Automatic annotation (TrEMBL):
The keyword Hydrolase applies. Keywords: Exonuclease, Hydrolase, Nuclease. It comes from freshwater metagenome. Pfam families: RNase_T. This is Unannotated protein. Signal peptide: none annotated. InterPro entries: DnaQ (IPR006054), Ribonucl_H (IPR013520), RNaseH-like_sf (IPR012337), RNaseH_sf (IPR036397).
């Protein structure tokens, strides 16, 4: 993944708001245990949602954070089994996440481990977007941003719950950011 120059106008393609829960924070050693995608129109309206638990082939890591146990993952598919559906969910969209670098790095590693063909496209980081739209804050965590925007966040640290909150944040930002030129933070992604 590499940073690309900022776009000057809001993207005009659908968004795929992605979130992952993982066994830890190290992309070289840890694995995805849950993934979710909320597809949204170019205006930010939710179109669909999809999520899956993922068997990481090891312990689930910090269960006290994400609440996912080894028992929950006992019948979960391996990443290679969900990779075709994930590819379909992301196809033709702008990959969007709150802290895109984290989520994209894990997805890229999992695609590589699954020997899946690379997936190329553009990404949008809502963390960077809210920093540009609302500068001067000390914290830009998903929980803090959701609270400031009045978005309920009942399923924090679950992939679908976090993806739904991020999608709603994106919708609000798309409506409130000035229509003229704005430094939209975009990244060129290669997920493989």
């Amino acid at each position: 993944m590499r940073l690309q120059s900022h776009g000057r106008r809001a993207p005009r393609r659908p968004f795929a708001v992605l979130d992952v829960e993982t066994t830890g924070l190290n992309t070289a050693a840890d694995r995805i245990i849950e993934i979710a995608v909320v597809r949204c129109s170019p205006s930010g309206r939710k179109i669909s949602e999809w999520s899956s638990l993922v068997d990481p082939g090891r312990d689930p890591g910090p269960t006290h954070i994400h609440g996912i146990t080894a028992h929950d993952l006992a019948d979960a598919p391996k990443f290679f089994e969900i990779a075709p559906e994930l590819r379909r969910q992301l196809d033709g969209t702008i990959f969007t996440a709150h802290n895109l670098a984290f989520d994209a790095a894990f997805v890229a590693r999992e695609f590589a481990e699954a020997d899946a063909p690379p997936l190329n496209g553009f990404g949008l980081c809502t963390l960077e977007l809210v920093r540009a739209a609302r500068p001067g804050r000390r914290k830009y965590s998903l929980a803090t941003c959701a609270d400031e925007l009045g978005i309920p966040h009942p399923d924090a640290h679950r992939a679908l719950g976090d993806a739904l909150v991020t999608a709603e944040m994106l919708r609000i930002l798309l409506q409130t950011i000035p229509r003229g030129p704005f430094p939209w933070p975009r990244q060129r992604l290669r997920l493989s």
